[in-house]
Write a structure and sequence with these properties.
heterodimer; A: 292 residues; mainly alpha; MetI-like fold; 2 strands; flat; B: alpha/beta; D-Maltodextrin-Binding Protein, domain 2; 2 domains; 11-stranded mixed β-sheet
Chain lengths: 292, 372
């Protein structure tokens, strides 16, 4: 009798401790672990005659890692992701700094709304609008021709840099919002104190502000770098034949219903993303990571 | 609104389309269904249609619903291979599925779709005879699909920059055309064109040795490719602006460039032959609304006004001969001729789009060339 009561109370205690996790576990299980598990399985299966055959093999990985062509695509993807993330942060940081420090608080929110206004339109539409900006008869070329700076239109589209520019445009709001929310909590008196003690404004920002908003900077990097790594539409629409990213390779396999091939490359990107996340997490202290 | 669109008024559509459809529909057995709908003995159905964006207008589906009581949820299809895998894995989720040329035969032979008697669909009377008797879609006296539209893919060039007519695919390899050629990002079609250029027996279904030759040819071509477009409208802009001097595209690229205010574009049908496609709608074998196929297709494809409008808007020939006559009466003869609308036999001389035994090797080859 005593045992039963004890057992019952243990069950109740376990339910009390872990019961609250059930909705989250179900949500994650259904919408993350199950699909992710399927992608893992697919990556070890084979595509035969438009059918994914459940025959376990490493062939997809062997193929992908053994092709020199894809190694250059991997480097190009990494290069473009790093460039796009770096430039995005270089623009977003001064913007967020200016917004938080110099713009009256009543105007800050409307300006932030303006940052996210592009999200109200279709992603595809925003992408195609860049054809009208960078095209030979686009906004920039027309402007430069009218000013007499150029006689012949510049070839701005279908290059790696044009893809990077569009990626910066697409992901700027993610970085700006993240950095703004970090900078906005900063105590500006500390910056003034540093300058009172002889630090130049730049040194004060570097030594006082940047270390304190490090978690925000890392979050902004993650928010930009990771989605850019998987991008395929920007290089497809804005890029030429020398600018594909890994996302385009996956898209081409997907188009031809070669899901096993596509899954293996997707999983390699996912593995890389996980490594990046672990490295970033390790660079933060527990207090920085959890905001305790 | 452009000149060509202005002439095609709402009134024309109503006269040529919806009213015609209603007449044809009622004349071909719709009366009974309409009566049964009215007395409530038939429940209005909702079907799921896996198709391409340019196969219908929402207003067209609204008319179909009014006439038949059948609502439709169209889901846009990405490619033939994805349609094939989608229908195979979703069972009865879709009721009608579009597909191209030899893909239709494969889907039918693999038991995914079911043939129908075209004569039971009144709208088939509006089709060209060639479309009613497509040999690769024949299944006894039935047809594997209801034909919709078609096009061959040929070379278009801007004579201002391209002084020698590129009558062969090999002409495209000339260093003169560095970054001046555009096509669409379609691995199987690109490999098929390379296959024709290198003498593959069945360009859409190449052997491994043929794929290897096609890949080598594409490597030579790659420096000349400016862009592999996601949508063919991008290539129209590229030609209009003079960024691309040569485009491989569906029929009518020259007309579409001119419509966009671009320069004179000339057409070449390469001496080695061309790839081509024609598509149609199939009844999904596991559909739970098979009874809706005939009335739905009949009511939708008998709306000749919308079919004609479809040609004007989406720019490729349709198989509907009645729509041709309407368009001629509207003053579109020159445009129709430019698209070879009245010559549907042209498509049956092309290498037709279809599945490949070595599909993985084909996409591998494409990615190894254009994915790096």
């Amino acid at each position: 009798m005593t045992t039963e009561v004890g057992g019952g109370s243990r069950v109740a205690s376990h339910l009390g401790r872990f019961g609250g996790l059930v909705p989250a576990a179900l949500y994650f299980g259904l919408f993350f672990f199950v699909p992710f598990g399927l992608v893992i399985c697919f990556s070890f299966w084979q595509d035969v005659n438009y059918t994914v055959v459940h025959h376990w093999t490493l062939e997809n990985y062997h193929y992908f890692l053994g092709q020199p062509a894809y190694r250059s695509t991997m480097w190009a993807t990494l290069w473009m992701s790093v460039a796009a993330t770096g430039i995005t942060l270089l623009i977003a940081f001064p913007f967020s700094y200016w917004l938080s420090r110099y713009v009256p608080s009543g105007l800050q929110k409307p300006l932030l709304v303006l940052v996210i206004v592009p999200f109200w339109t279709s992603y595809l539409l925003r992408m195609y609008s860049w054809l009208n900006i960078l095209g030979t008869k686009g906004l920039i070329n027309t402007f430069l021709e009218k000013l007499g700076i150029i006689d012949q239109p510049l070839t701005l589209l279908y290059s790696r840099w044009s893809v990077v520019v569009v990626l910066v445009y697409l992901y700027f709001p993610f970085a700006a919002l993240t950095l703004y929310s970090s900078i906005d909590r900063f105590d500006w008196d500390q910056l003034l104190a540093a300058m009172d003690l002889g630090a130049s404004p730049l040194k004060a920002i570097r030594k006082i502000l940047v270390p304190q908003i490090r978690p925000g900077i890392i979050t902004a990097i993650i928010f930009v770098f990771i989605p850019v790594l998987g991008e395929y539409l920007a290089p497809q629409i804005i890029g030429g034949t020398s600018t594909p990213m890994l996302g385009n390779v996956i898209d081409n396999f997907q188009k031809e219903a070669l899901y096993a091939r596509a899954s293996s490359i997707a999983l390699l990107i996912a593995a890389f993303v996980i490594i990046v996340l672990i490295l970033f997490r390790k660079s933060l202290t527990a207090k920085e990571a959890y905001g305790a | 609104m452009s000149e060509r669109e202005r002439r095609f008024t709402r009134g024309d559509l109503l006269r040529g389309g919806a009213v015609g459809a209603a007449g044809l529909y009622l004349g071909t057995g719709g009366t009974a269904l309409a009566a049964r709908l009215a007395d409530g003995s038939v429940t209005a159905e909702t079907i799921a249609w896996l198709t391409w964006f340019d196969h219908f207008f929402p207003q067209q589906l609204a008319v179909t619903k009014k006439l038949t009581g059948i609502s439709c949820h169209p889901k846009l299809a990405p490619s033939d291979s994805e349609i094939y895998t989608t229908i195979r894995t979703t069972g009865s989720q879709f009721d009608i599925a579009a597909a191209d040329a030899l893909w239709v035969s494969k889907m039918n032979k693999d038991g995914l779709t079911q043939s129908v008697d075209l004569s039971s669909i009144g709208a088939s009377k509006q089709l060209y005879s060639a479309a009613r008797h497509i040999s690769i879609w024949k299944d006894g006296s039935n047809s594997m699909a209801f034909p919709n539209g078609w096009s061959t893919v040929q070379i278009y060039y801007n004579p201002k920059y391209v002084k020698t007519r590129p009558s062969s695919y090999d002409a495209l390899l000339s260093p003169k055309y560095k970054k001046k050629i555009a096509y669409e990002n379609e691995p199987e079609s690109v490999l098929a064109i390379a296959g024709i250029a290198t003498g593959a027996k069945i360009p859409f279904n190449q052997t491994l040795a043929e794929i290897s030759r096609s890949k080598a040819w594409l490597k030579q071509l790659k420096p000349n490719i400016l862009h592999m477009a996601e949508q063919n409208s991008e290539n129209i802009t590229l030609m209009k602006n003079g960024d691309a001097w040569i485009v491989l595209g569906n029929l009518g690229v020259d007309t579409r460039v001119r419509d966009a205010g671009g320069p004179l574009i000339k057409t070449v049908f390469p001496k080695e032959g061309q790839i081509g496609w024609f598509d149609g709608e199939q009844m999904v074998k596991k559909s739970t609304h098979k009874d809706a196929f005939v009335p739905f297709i009949n009511a939708t494809y008998a709306q000749t006004g919308w079919i004609a409008k479809n040609f004007i808007k989406n720019g490729r020939p349709m198989f509907n001969e009645k729509a041709y006559k309407i368009l001629v009466n509207q003053g579109y003869k020159a445009r129709l001729d430019a698209f070879h609308y009245n010559n549907p036999d042209l498509i049956f001389q092309a290498h037709l789009q279809g599945p490949a035994k070595n599909s993985q090797a084909i996409t591998d080859a494409y990615n190894e060339v254009f994915g790096a």
